[in-house]
Amino acid sequence: MSEASIDHPIRELDPFAFFVGHASRIKPLGGPNRGPDPKYGFHTPYFEYRPGPVVFTIRFHDLKVSFGELGIHVNGFVADSGRHAVLVGSSRADMPELMREGTEITVRINAVRGVTYALFGFFADGTDAHASGMTITAQELGAAENTSVPAEAFERTRFGNETIGQVSALVDSGAPNFAHPISQPLTQSQLDEAGIGGAEGASDRWSEAFILKVLERYGVLQLGARGLMLGGSLQLAEAIAARGCQMVIGGEDSLPDLPANISVWPLNFAELPDDLRGFDFLFSMGTACRLETVDNARWFINSAIRSLRPGGIAVHLVDWLATSDERGFATADRLPLRRSELTRIALTLISHNHEVAQLNFGGEEPDDQPLVTPVEVNTPDGPKTVEITPFGLIARA
């Protein structure tokens, strides 16, 4: 169920092959010659990739640095077009922080057929960086020569009017708000605000209402938008289709008497097919937590987002182990996730150049704290009661 288990080739790129012999600002890398650009860090050759997501990973070896910010541009170029290369993606990294944290840098783009791409690294304000070497890899996550995936499936969605945007902190400490949702749990105040009843049966009612509210707020619940349900109720799919969306229900072999704008796609949630592409939004209810392990849950969320067009919205409802961050244990049919695991999933999505709506784990007032349900789990020390609640994770491709 890992990325490596699917045909997603990884190719290594020469960081200094575009400007042969030019010295890099990262000493003593590059070549012996002083180039015309004093900000130059590296520049890979231009290559064409499979249509679809491509993740570039940059790693420095034995990095020593006290100052400098690395800017990274991904440029796209169409040969024989008569046009210059254009910027299609970017990122930046504080080099001293990179040295301390020991983390790699990733940049994600969506490749288009017929376009070649290269990475350019630069230091606008200089640096004193030294490294024994650096590697750049490109992992192609797109479909391999799959004619069932049209090129337009990788074009940016034309729906969406709300930007998740960059935030100064991943976690928000305010009270969860139903009218303006971010990544957040069920609370009593949201039930009251939305007018969707009391605590009895609240988890499913709130989860469906939350999905609808998120899709509405982020502008994808519109006529002509294409949505994918990876676990949820037929009633929810029908409610979305009634707004004029084209809905695909994943995981079902067939369903009787469906409206014309609802179809089914037989699939195994543990092995999402590579041609499941071109959606403007997707959502799941509890699916990630029914895949037996935390690694599988993480894989599902990270893989599902590849089904979206760039800019598409994903909403995943998961079971959160709300009152403890101890290692969770599975119930009969699901594995609640800890706060640290939700945070890690969010950081992984961000590292692949996706946006994640801020995480909110509840406010201070009693009605703003998670509305939990006690469930019994089996542990090595015997049965134990834990408290779980649905948590909605929002991301943009």
UniProtKB/TrEMBL annotation:
Q: Which domain of life is it from?
A: Bacteria
Please identify the protein, giving its name as recorded. Class I SAM-dependent methyltransferase
